[in-house]
Write a structure and sequence with these properties.
mainly alpha, Glycerol uptake facilitator protein, 8 helices
């Protein structure tokens, strides 16, 4: 239960701070800025990895959990409880933001700025790079830098790709605000693409003989 609670709290903090930054930027008409949102996402991911890494591995992402199980680095019997905990934490965060900022229309929901295919492909590539970093850094002798490396990749990708696809890379991060705000029209992109990207990274690591 400690692991499940850690995943719930970690994902809650990720969604509350990350989509909270987007929400506050929306209701204050740009006070946080795009750069501020990217930095917020990167810092909260880094913090949660260092805070809960030794307890649960700090997946805080269903795509990461599923890919680790497929790659043989995580027990399948733990997959459903982990993902359930992540989704629960994300949903609580979005509900809290809804109570705090009832005037927000999106609550940080991820929506494609242009063509859906463009965002779908972007999300696959972004998640591929993120998962590759997770696997290669956490499996190396320098794994004490996992939080810094993963948080840095999230910040980097949110910085340049956020305005186009939202740079979700995490189904839980997208599912919760979509459900609470009612904007579920493009949710399939942010469920399917991160899973595909993460699985591709797992396959590439196998081919490289890493992990």
């Amino acid at each position: 239960m400690k692991k499940y609670l850690a995943e719930l709290i970690g994902t809650f903090c990720l969604v509350f701070c990350g989509t909270g930054a987007i929400t506050i930027n929306e209701v204050t008409v740009g006070s946080v800025t795009h750069m501020g949102i990217a930095i917020t996402f990167g810092l909260i991911v880094m913090a949660m990895i260092y805070a809960f890494g030794e307890v649960s591995g700090s997946h805080i992402n269903p795509a990461v959990t599923l890919s680790l199980a497929v790659g043989g680095h995580f027990e399948w019997r733990e997959t459903v409880p982990y993902i359930t905990s992540q989704l629960t934490g994300a949903l609580i965060a979005s509900l809290a933001l809804k109570v705090l900022f009832p005037s927000s229309l999106l609550l940080g929901a991820t929506l494609p700025a242009n063509a859906t295919l463009q965002s779908f492909i972007l999300e696959i590539i972004l998640t591929f790079m993120l998962m590759l970093t997770v696997l290669l850094v956490s499996g190396s002798k320098n794994n004490q830098f996992t939080g810094l490396a993963v948080g840095g990749v999230v910040l980097l990708e949110a910085m340049f790709a956020g305005p186009i696809c939202g740079a979700s890379m995490n189904p839980a991060r997208s599912i919760a605000p979509a459900l609470v705000s009612g904007h579920m029209e493009h949710l399939w992109i942010y469920i399917c693409a991160p899973v595909v990207g993460a699985l591709l990274a797992t396959g590439i690591c196998k081919l490289l003989g890493k992990r």
